[in-house]
From TrEMBL:
Coiled coil: none annotated. PROSITE patterns: WD_REPEATS_1, WD_REPEATS_2. Signal peptide: none annotated. The keyword Nucleotidyltransferase does not apply. This is WD40 repeat. It comes from the Eukaryota. The lineage of its organism: Eukaryota, Viridiplantae, Chlorophyta, Mamiellophyceae, Mamiellales.
C-alpha cells in the first residue's frame, strides 16, 4: 500500500467546482485506487448548520447549497465514482476569499474508484490494510467522545485536550479564529507549590471576560442592550490576538485591526499587565512558543516576563515549562471542566449562559459561515477528570515526525472496506437525502443523527465524523428540534420534501442527476451556481475571475447578482490592500470598472450598498503607493460612467454623503494622485455640483475648499493649493458667469468675497418684474464670517481636506426665519402631517391640497422654488380626479438614470393608492374594497419595496411598489381610522388611531399585532424614528405632547388598561395639538403646533418630563400676500433638509416656506 500526496495526486484533481480536489491518494499493488479527500478549510456543512450563524438562512441560500451538493454528487456518479462516507462533516463549505465572508460554496469530499468496485458481480466487498501514516491520521481526527474519555483517564494532558477541542471547533492559526487556552495564573508570584496548589490561581468557573469586566458591568450591559448580551466578542477575538501577540504581528496588521497609528507604548509592556487588561483568553503560543515574547518591531520592546521567570538567557523557555506545569496541575485538572462548559459547552446558550453571565452578542452578519469558539460541542455538563497529574509530558506541538510515526505504528491496524460501486452509490444517494433534508429543515434527520453510514468506503473512517457530538441532544433547541421523521419532513417546502422522500424511502433512490435537473431549483439558482463555479475555475488571476463574474452578470436577476457580489467582493477587498505590480493594477482596474457598471445595472440597491459600494469607497480612499501614469484603479473608478452607475444604483443622497468627502480627500498631497486622476476628481466634483441642490454644494464642497485654501500652511511646493483653486474654478464655470474671477481672488485675498456676492453664482433670469432667479433667496452670509467657536487656524490644509466629511458633525445654526415662501395650494382640505414630504436627495417637495378646480391635486416642487410665475409647480398630478387626496409620499427607493428620486405615491378617501412618476405619468393604482378610503400612507424598502396604507376601518395594507398588488394585510382592533404609520428598518410596522392607541405589527410574522399600547390621551398625528436605532420612536399627539418610546419595552397582548407602556420621556411646551415632528441625526427635534415651532434635543436631559419654549417663525409670507404673525394660519407639517441645513413648513392655507 502506498500513500501519495502533493504533486503525485495531480491525476485525481477535481474537474468539477463542486468536488474538492484530492489531497491523498492510496494505491495498492493490484491497481486499486482509493482517493480520500478531506475538507481543506475551517468550515463544513455540519459547522454551518450547527453553529446557528445562518449561513443558509433564506430559501435562496438553501436552494443554492442543495443544488451545489447535487451537482457534486451527480458529477462523481456520472464518472463511475463513489463518495464513501458522505455526511455533513465531509461536505466542505468555502468562500472565494478563503475566509468567513462571501457566498457559502458547497463541495463534496471523499471519492474513490477501482476496477474491483466497478465489477459488481465479482467477489463483493473486500478489505485491505491502510499504511501507518493513515493510522496516524486516524489518531489526529479521533472522535470527540474518545478524546474526552482519554482525557478523563489521563491518557492525554490538559493542554493537548484543549488543543483537540479547538481543532474540532475549527480553530487554527487564523487571527479571527485562533487557537486558545485558559489563563490559569495571574503571574504575580511563582505559581508552583510543593503540595500541588497554585499561587495566583484564576477562577475557572467564570469567563475571563467576566473576571475582567466585573458582574456589575455585565449586568448593566445585559439590561440595556438589544439583543441582550453579556459578552461582546469571542473567547479570543481578532483584536485580542493582535494585542496579545503584538510583538510577533506585522505592523500593517496592527494598523488594520487595532489602530491605524501604531504606538508601541499603548500595548501592554509585561505579561502581568496583559493578563489584567485583556478580557480574552490566552493564545496557545503562551504555552508552547518561547518566541512569543520576542519583538520583531524596532520601537516595541520585548514582552517582559514575570520577575520569578527571569533566570537568564533561557528565561522564556523556563517560563513556558513552568506555565505548562501549572496548566497540567491537579487544581487545574479538577476545575477545567467548568471552563469547558463556558467555552465549548452547554453554558454557551440558553438559561445556563444567562446564569453564568455568558450570553454573547449575535453575529452582525448571519449570512456568513463561521466556526468560532462559540461552537457548542457539549450539551450537558462536561464530566470531571478522574485522575490528577498525567505521568508523562505530551506537548501538542512538540516531538519529531519519527516519534509520531513510531507512536502510530504501535496502534491497531486500520482496514478499508471497499463495497461494490452500485451499493456505494445508493448509500451516497440516501446520505444525499439526509443532507438535503438537514439544509431545508435546519436540523439533521432525527432517525439518522447518531447513525454512521453503512457500507461506506471506510469501515473505520480516517475522516471520523464528529456529527455525533455536534448534533448531540439536539432537542434542547426548540426551534430546530424534531421528535419524529414526519415532523422533520413537515418543516421543508413541498418540493424539497418530495425529493428527500424519493431519496431516503425508495428501495432504489432516484439519481443525483435527476435531482439536479428537477424543478426543485429555479433558473436563478442554476445560473448562480454556474457562475460561482466558473469563478472558481478561473485560476489565472483575480482579474480573470472578475471578468468571468462580469460576463455572467449581464442580464442576471437580483438573486444571481447578490450571490456573485457576496462571493467576489471580499476577495477583491483582500487583494486591493496588498501590494501589486503595475500590470496587476492595470488588469484589476480595467476589469473592476466594467464589473462595477454591470453590477449596478442588475443588482438591487441594498446589495450594492452592502457589498460593492464599501469596496468601491475602500479602493478610492487609500493613498497611492507610487506615482503611475496610465490605467490605475483610482483613475478608472473616477470615470464619469462608473460614478453615474454608482449614483444611479445607491441614490443621490447616499452618493453625495459618502463620495464628496472621498473626492475632496484625494486632493491631499499624500495621496500622490497623478495628473489624470486629479483631472477626473475635478470632473467628478463638477458632476456633483451640476446634479446636486446648490445649498448642499455650498456646504459640502465650496465651504470646505475655501477653508482649505485659507488654512494653506503646508509646503506650497506640492502644488495642492493650485489644485484646490483649479477645482473651485471648474465648479464656478457651471454655477455662474463671474464665479471664476471671484474664486481666484478669494484664494489669495479675503475668503468671504465669494459668498458675499452670492447672486453672481447663479445665472439671473432675463425676465423682469417679480420673477425670481433659481436659488436667489439663499442667504449671502459667508461661512467664514460665522462665529462657530472653532479655531480653523489650528488645522492645516491637508487636515481640512481629510476631514471633509466632518461637516455633518457641525452644529445646526438656526435662525427660525423663512428664506422664501410660495403658495402651493389655495388651502389644505384635510390638514395633516402627511401633506408635505421632501425627497431623500432634497431636490423636490411634495404637497397635496385644494385648488380652484378640485381637491385631488398633488404638486411636485423644486427645492429652489417655483420657476417663472409663483404658481408654477414642476408637476401637478390630478390622477385622483374628484376624490380628496389624504396623504402623499415620495418613493425614495425609486430612482431615474441619474440616481434622483423619480416616483411618488398618494391615496384618497375613495380607497385608491396611486403610484406615479414625478413627471406626472401614472404608473399603477390599487383599489381597496370596503375600506371607506385611506387616511395615511408610507413608503418603505425595509423588507422589499412597499407602499403601506392605513384605512378608515383600521386596516393596514402592504402593497408591492413595483407590481401594484397587496401582499400583506393587518387589522387594528376596534376598527378605528389609522391616522399615522411608521415602518422601522427591521420591518416592524407601527400604526395609530385618533383615540391615542398605537399598534405594532411584524411584517415578517403572523397577522396578529405584536403590541398594543395606549400611547396618548388624544389622537396620534405622526410617528417617526427617534434615532438610528429601529426600536426608538417619537410620537406627536393632539394632547399637546411629544413622546419618546422604546418598542422593546412595550408589552404584548391586547390589554386595554395598558397605558404609556414603553414610554421613556414626555416633552411638553405647546399650547395646541402637535401636528407634526421631525428629528435630525443628532437628535434635535422640530415640532409644529399652531403658529409656533418647538425645537429641543433628545440628548439635553434624561428627565422623564421635559419642558421647552416654543418659538415663532419670522418671515412666513409671500410677496403678493404678506401676513403678520397674528394673522398667520397654523402650521400643518414640517420636513428637514439635513444636508442643506434647512427645513420646510406648510401652513393650513397652503403656504410652503423654506426656513433656516
Amino acid at each position: 500500500m502506498v500513500v501519495r500526496g502533493g504533486s503525485a495526486n495531480a491525476a485525481f484533481r477535481s474537474s468539477h467546482p463542486n468536488v474538492s480536489p484530492a489531497v491523498v491518494v492510496v494505491v495498492d499493488d493490484e491497481s486499486c485506487v482509493v482517493v480520500s479527500v478531506e475538507p481543506t478549510n475551517a468550515h463544513t456543512l455540519a459547522v454551518c448548520l450547527r453553529s446557528g450563524f445562518g449561513a443558509f438562512d433564506g430559501a435562496d441560500r438553501k436552494s443554492l447549497a442543495a443544488l451545489q451538493l447535487c451537482r457534486g454528487v451527480a458529477h462523481c456518479h456520472e464518472r463511475q465514482l463513489a463518495l464513501g462516507n458522505l455526511s455533513v462533516d465531509e461536505t466542505s463549505v468555502s468562500t472565494l476569499s478563503g475566509g468567513a465572508r462571501g457566498t457559502p460554496y458547497v463541495q463534496v469530499t471523499g471519492m474513490y474508484n477501482s476496477p474491483h468496485a466497478r465489477a459488481v458481480g465479482v467477489g463483493g466487498s473486500r478489505t485491505f490494510e491502510v499504511s501507518a501514516e493513515s493510522a496516524l491520521r486516524v489518531r489526529e481526527n479521533s472522535d470527540i467522545r474518545n478524546i474526552t474519555a482519554a482525557w478523563r483517564v489521563g491518557a492525554i494532558g490538559n493542554l493537548e485536550y484543549v488543543v483537540k477541542l479547538n481543532e474540532i471547533a475549527r480553530r487554527d492559526k487564523d487571527r479571527s479564529n485562533h487557537t486558545f487556552a485558559p489563563w490559569v495564573i495571574d503571574f504575580s508570584e511563582f505559581p508552583l507549590n510543593a503540595d500541588g496548589s497554585l499561587n495566583g490561581l484564576r477562577d475557572l468557573t467564570k469567563t475571563k471576560f467576566r473576571l475582567t469586566k466585573g458582574d456589575e458591568q455585565l449586568d448593566f450591559t445585559y439590561r440595556n442592550t438589544m439583543p441582550p448580551h453579556h459578552v461582546s466578542g469571542d473567547c479570543l477575538s481578532e483584536l485580542g490576538v493582535c494585542i496579545a501577540l503584538a510583538r510577533r504581528t506585522p505592523r500593517a496588521t496592527l494598523a488594520h485591526v487595532v489602530r491605524a497609528n501604531v504606538v508601541a507604548d499603548e500595548y501592554p509592556k509585561d505579561l502581568s499587565r496583559l493578563y489584567q487588561v485583556l478580557p480574552d483568553e490566552a493564545p496557545i503560543e503562551f504555552y508552547v512558543d518561547p518566541l512569543v515574547f520576542k519583538s520583531i518591531h524596532e520601537d516595541m520592546s520585548d514582552l517582559a516576563l514575570p520577575t520569578w521567570a527571569r533566570v537568564g538567557e533561557d528565561s522564556a523557555s523556563y517560563f513556558i515549562k513552568v506555565h505548562q506545569e501549572a496548566f497540567e496541575s491537579c487544581v487545574v485538572s479538577e476545575n477545567l471542566h467548568s471552563w469547558i462548559d463556558l467555552t465549548f459547552g452547554y453554558a454557551t446558550y440558553g438559561t445556563a449562559a444567562i446564569d453564568a453571565k455568558n450570553v454573547m452578542v449575535p453575529d452582525s452578519n448571519r449570512t456568513l459561515p463561521s466556526s468560532g469558539g462559540r461552537l457548542c460541542l457539549f450539551h450537558t455538563p462536561h464530566p470531571k477528570r478522574s485522575v490528577g497529574v498525567v505521568p508523562r509530558s505530551l506537548s501538542p506541538r512538540g516531538g519529531s515526525e519519527s516519534d509520531a510515526l513510531a507512536l502510530a505504528t504501535t496502534m491497531s491496524t486500520m482496514f478499508i472496506t471497499e463495497p461494490p460501486l452500485s451499493v456505494a452509490q445508493d448509500d451516497d444517494l440516501r446520505a444525499l437525502g439526509r443532507i438535503l433534508g438537514a439544509i431545508y429543515a435546519g436540523a439533521p434527520c432525527p432517525e439518522f443523527e447518531s447513525a454512521a453510514p453503512s457500507n461506506g468506503l471506510f469501515e473505520e473512517s480516517p475522516m471520523k465524523s464528529v456529527s455525533e457530538s455536534l448534533f448531540e441532544d439536539r432537542k434542547v433547541h426548540a426551534k430546530t428540534a424534531f421528535k419524529s421523521y414526519k415532523a422533520w419532513l413537515s418543516r421543508m417546502p413541498v418540493e424539497a420534501r418530495d425529493v428527500v422522500k424519493l431519496l431516503m424511502d425508495s428501495a432504489k433512490p432516484i439519481g443525483a442527476a435527476a435531482v439536479r435537473d428537477s424543478v426543485l431549483f429555479s433558473q436563478d439558482i442554476r445560473s448562480a451556481a454556474t457562475i460561482l463555479g466558473n469563478m472558481r475555475s478561473a485560476h489565472e488571476s483575480i482579474a480573470a475571475r472578475i471578468m468571468v463574474a462580469e460576463a455572467g452578470l449581464k442580464g442576471a436577476s437580483n438573486t444571481v447578482s447578490r450571490f456573485v457580489l457576496e462571493d467576489l467582493c471580499p476577495e477583491i477587498e483582500e487583494y486591493i490592500v496588498a501590494p501589486f505590480s503595475e500590470t496587476q493594477e492595470m488588469q484589476l482596474a480595467m476589469s473592476f470598472s466594467l464589473f462595477v457598471q454591470t453590477a449596478c445595472d442588475v443588482a438591487s440597491r441594498r446589495d450594492i450598498i452592502n457589498t460593492l459600494f464599501p469596496l468601491f469607497v475602500h479602493a478610492l480612499s487609500a493613498p497611492n503607493s507610487r506615482n503611475v501614469e496610465g490605467p490605475t484603479l483610482k483613475r478608472e473608478m473616477f470615470h464619469l460612467n462608473v460614478l453615474r452607475c454608482i449614483r444611479r444604483s445607491i441614490g443621490a443622497a447616499t452618493f453625495n454623503r459618502v463620495m464628496i468627502p472621498v473626492f475632496i480627500a484625494c486632493l491631499q498631497p499624500k495621496f500622490r494622485c497623478s495628473s489624470e486622476e486629479i483631472e477626473r476628481v475635478t470632473q467628478a466634483l463638477v458632476y456633483v455640483a451640476r446634479t446636486t441642490p446648490l445649498p448642499i454644494v455650498l456646504r459640502r464642497i465650496v465651504d470646505v475648499l475655501h477653508k482649505a485654501l485659507r488654512n494653506n500652511r503646508d509646503d506650497t511646493s506640492s502644488g495642492a493649493h493650485v489644485i484646490v483653486a483649479d477645482v473651485l474654478t471648474s465648479i464656478s464655470e457651471h454655477l455662474g458667469p463671474r464665479a471664476e474671477e471671484l474664486i481666484l481672488r478669494t484664494s489669495m485675498g479675503a475668503p468671504s468675497s465669494i459668498l458675499e456676492n452670492l447672486d453672481d453664482w447663479h445665472p439671473q433670469s432675463p425676465a423682469t418684474g417679480s420673477t425670481k432667479s433659481e436659488w436667489s433667496w439663499l442667504p449671502r452670509v459667508s461661512p467664514f464670517d460665522r462665529d462657530d467657536g472653532i479655531n480653523d487656524d489650528e488645522l492645516t490644509m491637508s487636515q481640512v481636506l481629510a476631514s471633509a466629511g466632518a461637516v455633518d458633525d457641525e452644529p445646526w445654526r438656526l435662525h427660525v426665519e423663512a428664506l422664501t415662501s410660495w403658495r402651493a395650494h389655495s388651502q389644505l382640505v384635510r390638514p395633516s402631517a402627511q401633506a408635505l414630504d421632501v425627497s431623500a436627495d432634497e431636490r423636490l417637495f411634495l404637497t397635496h391640497g385644494a385648488t380652484s378646480k378640485c381637491d385631488g391635486i398633488v404638486c411636485v416642487w423644486r427645492a429652489s422654488g417655483p420657476r417663472g410665475d409663483e404658481e408654477g409647480a414642476m408637476t401637478k398630478y390630478n390622477g385622483h380626479a374628484k376624490a380628496t387626496v389624504t396623504a402623499s409620499a415620495f418613493l425614495n427607493f425609486a430612482r431615474d438614470r441619474e440616481g434622483d428620486v423619480s416616483r411618488a405615491c398618494s391615496c384618497d378617501d375613495k380607497g385608491y393608492i396611486q403610484v406615479w412618476n414625478t413627471s406626472g405619468a401614472h404608473v399603477w393604482q390599487f383599489y381597496a374594497r370596503d375600506s371607506d378610503g385611506f387616511q395615511s400612507l408610507r413608503a418603505s424598502d425595509a423588507r422589499g419595496e412597499h407602499v403601506i396604507g392605513g384605512t378608515t376601518k383600521g386596516n393596514v395594507l402592504i402593497a408591492d411598489a413595483c407590481a401594484g398588488r397587496v401582499v400583506r394585510q393587518f387589522s387594528c382592533p376596534n376598527s378605528r381610522s389609522v391616522s399615522a404609520l411608521y415602518v422601522s428598518s427591521d420591518g416592524v410596522i407601527c400604526a395609530s388611531n385618533r383615540d391615542g392607541y398605537m399598534y405594532g405589527f411584524d411584517s415578517r410574522a403572523s397577522d396578529e399585532n405584536v403590541f398594543e399600547v395606549k400611547a396618548h390621551d388624544s389622537g396620534i398625528n405622526k410617528i417617526i424614528s427617534a434615532s438610528n436605532e429601529p426600536h426608538e420612536l417619537l410620537t406627536a399627539s393632539s394632547d399637546m405632547t411629544v413622546g419618546l418610546w422604546d418598542m422593546r419595552m412595550i408589552g404584548g397582548g391586547r390589554d386595554a388598561k395598558r397605558r404609556y407602556d414603553g414610554r421613556l420621556r414626555t416633552f411638553r411646551g405647546h399650547q395646541r395639538e402637535v401636528r407634526d415632528i421631525a428629528v435630525s441625526e443628532k437628535g434635535d427635534v422640530f415640532s409644529v403646533s399652531g403658529t409656533s415651532i418647538g425645537i429641543f434635543s433628545l440628548n439635553s436631559s434624561t428627565e422623564q418630563f421635559t419642558r421647552f419654549a416654543p418659538l415663532s417663525v419670522h418671515g412666513v409670507s409671500t410677496p403678493s400676500a404678506p401676513k403678520s404673525g397674528a394673522e398667520q394660519s397654523a402650521f400643518s407639517a414640517i420636513q428637514l433638509l439635513p444636508s442643506s441645513r434647512l427645513f420646510a413648513m406648510l401652513n393650513e392655507d397652503g403656504l410652503l416656506s423654506v426656513c433656516h
